[in-house]
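Notebook p. 47: complex prediction with AR6.
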Amino acid sequence: MQIEAVKGDITLLHVDAIVNAANQALAGGGGVDGAIHRAAGAAELHKACAKIGHCDPGDAVATPGFKLSAKWIIHTVGPVWHGGGHNEAAILASCYRKSIEVADRLQARVVAFPAISTGVYGFPQDQAAHIAVDTLRSIDSSTVERSILVAFDDSTFSLYNALLSS
Ligand code: AR6
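Predicted complex, C-alpha cells below:
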C-alpha cells in the first residue's frame, strides 16, 4: 500500500473513501466531522449515522458519501487524550487498522485519512503522526492501494512529510 501526505480539505478529495474523525454517538460535531456532514449533506448523513447508532473508540463503520465525490465515509472514533496513560496510542492505531479493514470490505482502493484525534480530542500531533504512518506501513491490505494522510495545517503536513521520507 502506497502512503502519501497532502494538505487541504478532505471533503474535496476524489477518492473512494474518506475517513471521518467521529464521536461515539456518531452525532456529528465540529472539526472535520462538521465539514464532512456539511459537504455530504447533513440531513442524509445524520440519518445514516443514526441508523448505525454507535461506534466504540478504535472501531470504524461506513456510510455512503452522499453528495461527496467519495463513494464512502468511514467513521472512526479516536481516543480522547488523557495524558497518554489510558491506552490512547493503541486506540488510535486501531482507528487506522479498522478503517482499512472496512475499506477492504467496501473494495475501496484509495482512502483518505484526517489527523484523527489531533483536534478537539487533544492527541499530540507528533505522536499521532508517528502512529498514523507506522500503523499504515504495518498493514498488508488486499484492496487498498493508496492511503492519503490529509493535513489541515502546515505543522501536520511537515510531520507527515518527514516521517514518510524516512
Ligand atoms: N479536512 C481535513 N482535516 C480537517 C478538516 C478538513 N475539512 N477540518 C479539520 N481538520 P477534529 P478529533 C483537521 O477536532 O480531534 C468533532 O466534534 C483538524 O485540523 O476534527 O478526532 C467530532 O464530532 C485536526 O488536525 O477531530 C468529535 O466529537 C483533525 O482534522 C471530535 O470532534 C482532527 O480534528 C473528534 O475530535
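Notes: Residues 9-11, 21-23, 29-33, 35, 78, 114-121, 150, 152-153, 156 surround AR6 (CB under 6 Å). The two ends are 16 Å apart (CA to CA).
Next step: compare against the earlier run before touching the bench.
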